[in-house]
Automatic annotation (TrEMBL):
Protein name as it appears in the record: U4/U6.U5 tri-snRNP-associated protein 1
Cell compartments where the protein resides: Nucleus
Keyword Hydrolase annotated: no
Organism: Megaselia scalaris (Humpbacked fly)
Family: Belongs to the SNU66/SART1 family.
GO cellular component, as recorded: U4/U6 x U5 tri-snRNP complex
Amino acid sequence: PNVKLEYIDDNGRILNAKEAFRYLSHKFHGKGPGKNKIEKRLKKLEQESLMKTMSSTDTPLGTLTMLQQKQKETKTAYVVLSGNKQSSMGKDDKFNRRDRYQAGPIMDFRDKSNFNPNVKLEYIDDNGRILNAKEAFRYLSHKLKKLEQESLMKTMSSTDTPLGTLTMLQQKQKETKTAYVVLSGNKQSSMGSISKHK
């Protein structure tokens, strides 16, 4: 069926198909991601929100220092801003790590058994029928398999054939008693021999 899926979490962020598939998979199989996966995902979300809040004039941390070093190397003119011993931009110190970790852990991780991400998913097909999680999971898994097969077909050359095609063709020709070519790499010629079964 043609299904239109919208993936929206509690914060209103639109999830991509991979994130929604992962959520459905965890829900369907009854287990959640590990601690490292959760940490990685939270860092990614934090980075995305940081990028959204940045204005177009903001620059990544450490850019000023790198620019000044480059200007020193090329011996071009540059401006030194000083209020005391440091520049007005301050040091990046890897996102002020010390300040972050002195306050204690930022995020507490859930147990796998109690994993319940704040995600609201609606599964609606073209007819307006609401699909349950199992039907949507099945649809997504079939769609992913189809995409994999299509990408495989794109990488195959025109001379490639799916495995077993030649054997199936020869069996069909034996059954219908039509002439067929047997290709062999040892004692026979490279062209093969034509044999007809009666």
